[in-house]
Amino acid sequence: MTSPVLDLAGIGIGPFHLSLAAHLDSIPSAGVCFFDDKPAFDWHPGMMLEGVELQTSFMKDLVTATLPTSPWSFASYLVSQKRFYEFLNADFDAIPRREFARYLSWVAAGLDNLRFGRSVREVRFKEGAFHVRFDDETRFARNLSLGVGLKPNIPDWGQVVQGETCFHTSQAAYRLGGLKGRRIVVIGGGQSGAEIMQHLLSQPEAADQSIAWISRRQNFQTLDDSPFTDEFFTPQYVERFHALPRSRKQPTVAQQKLAGDGISASTLRAIYQKSYALRHLSGKEHDLAFLPHREVLDLRHEGGEFRLVMRNGFDGSVEMVSADAVVLATGYVFTVPDFLAPLGERLDLDERGLYQLREDFSVEWDGPAAARIFALNAGRHSHGIAEPQLSLMAWRSAVIVNALLGREHFDLALRPSAVKWVGDSAEALSRMAQGSAL
Ligand SMILES: Cc1cc2nc3c(=O)[nH]c(=O)nc-3n(C[C@H](O)[C@H](O)[C@H](O)COP(=O)(O)OP(=O)(O)OC[C@H]3O[C@@H](n4cnc5c(N)ncnc54)[C@H](O)[C@@H]3O)c2cc1C
Ligand SMILES: NC(=O)c1ccc[n+]([C@@H]2O[C@H](COP(=O)([O-])OP(=O)(O)OC[C@H]3O[C@@H](n4cnc5c(N)ncnc54)[C@H](OP(=O)(O)O)[C@@H]3O)[C@@H](O)[C@H]2O)c1
């Protein structure tokens, strides 16, 4: 081995590893390095459309929840940019996503434990260390952290037709400009689909264009970010969720879909209002269709156009629609990265091919206990719906740092929540009963 053995090698630098790197930056003795294949930090650039907003409070930044004195907070960023007061005066209900992306890039530029333009090709475990191989070198680490994000979900029917006029939303910012004047179908009733619709309806040519939006959900459904639902995005809830038997976790996550994957009410309102203006105020006959409760079954390119077959979940019929272009707003999926292939059977995956994650976000595997593999954004099934979201990234980073150091470096104790998810309600009720008897 030539280069020093790192305490931790992190693969991928999205917001989640950026948060972990920012926490580790406060511990000078930690030998850590994070690697990303992009030339520089860039947060979902393919979806950076005009006017898009963050769905999360800016207080839930990379560090504030666990390390409020960190120089890498959103407030520090505002001060460094000399626009603290102006930002507050702007009084955003939801801040522009571009602003949060700039904050993330500012942190990435300031941390010295990050390396960009480094694509990890393979990870092996030999002689008590992970061997992380790039094209031109190999780095060694006692622990590994995986922060490679999710992959675009392309349904089987979408695989063969992808190209300039049929693409996933992760390519939208590069390709939408080429679709002017075409008949466009957007498939997918989540926030990405909604943002594509908002964008298309905002273009000057929208009044002359045919646009259809398909959602498999019963309707174009709003994000539930009401106070009690937001309790799902607390450490106390995640700890309780992790302790549930596996059989209970999947149905719970399915029921909570709109708490994480619903559409911001502001986006839905903007779409409806633009639709109103186009239909009634533009002075033109407009060809705009909202198609809720449709599951796309097949998509073909025939006779110079795309032909979609859908099942209408409302009345059970099968319907067809034709278009010149298709945007796949069909979300993202977890996959075990190819570079882990050499570890193969040593990873303990469940029957769906998902990691078995311990409470501290380390993966069950048959290597030595001291050689941990942490995985972020890979545990919706184990830690609940907060896992792919920004909300708890600072807390998760602190949990991982504590696990790595083997001590409570970050004090993560919280006051018990008033919401009692499990049996401690008995204790609370008995306390109340005693209180009322006094
Ligand atoms: C458009 C969009 C907006 C979102 N907005 C919000 C929001 O407002 N609020 C919220 O809570 N959640 C939001 N999310 C969900 C979630 O917060 C983001 O997807 C977030 O970026 C996930 O962070 P990550 O670090 O896991 O992955 P990513 O941001 O995807 O980063 C992973 C990184 O790993 C790199 N990588 C992959 N493979 C390798 C390799 N072999 N070698 C080196 N590097 C590699 C990739 O290039 C990438 O840079 C949004 C998601 C999307 C798609
Ligand atoms: N501004 C922001 O903050 C922002 C922007 C974009 C994304 N995000 C976040 O990123 C995450 C991913 O969002 P996303 O919108 O990309 O994905 P998503 O929420 O998973 O939505 C994907 C949509 O595609 C639908 N779909 C899949 N296959 C289909 C088929 N065969 N026919 C019809 N519809 C089909 C899904 O239907 P089902 O629901 O029935 O499965 C779902 O409505 C979410 O957490 C979201 O909140 C945030």
Structural class: alpha/beta
> How many strands in all?
17
What is the third-level CATH name, the topology of the largest domain? FAD/NAD(P)-binding domain
Name the poorly predicted regions: none
Give every kind of bound small molecule, once each. Answer: flavin-adenine dinucleotide, NADP nicotinamide-adenine-dinucleotide phosphate
How many DSSP helices? Answer: 14
What's the alpha carbon Rg, rounded to whole Å? Answer: 24 Å
Whole-number tally of structural domains? 2
How would you name the CATH homologous superfamily of the largest domain? FAD/NAD(P)-binding domain
Percent helix range? 25-40%
State mean pLDDT (0 to 100 scale).
Answer: 95
